[in-house]
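Today's session is about reading a structure prediction critically. Students often jump straight to the picture, but the first step is always the sequence itself: look for stretches that repeat, for charged clusters, for runs of hydrophobic residues. Only then move on to the predicted structure, which in these notes is written as discrete structure tokens rather than atom positions. Here is the chain we will use throughout the hour.
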Amino acid sequence: MDSPHDPSVAAEQARARLHEEIERVRTGVEEMLAEQDGGIDDAELRRELDALREDTRLYVKKRLGKSEKRIDKRIGKLECRIDQVEQDRKYAEWRLHTNTEAMLDGLLREVRAIADLLTRSH
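Below is the predicted structure for this chain, in token form.
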């Protein structure tokens, strides 16, 4: 089930876009830092940037986990609904078959009764 509407495909695409955006921001920050000749220690800025990157990674991981749980819950509900619809369909088929069989049995009895009347009158 790798259609464009597949939740796992959508999640993977969102994950890729998010990582691209994180990398774009990181590159921008690094370029900005390279352009500045301020008195701030590069090692300290690198540590802050690494801490920010780690915080972002943890945030993304947490959000993805929540999204995956929601998607799994939805999929579970859909699977239950599909099972219920399948049971309803089987029951409807059984009912249709049973009612048709009963109707045909009734018609057969009526035809036999008519045939019996016709054979008696001759």
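Discussion point for the tutorial: The chain has a mean pLDDT of 86.
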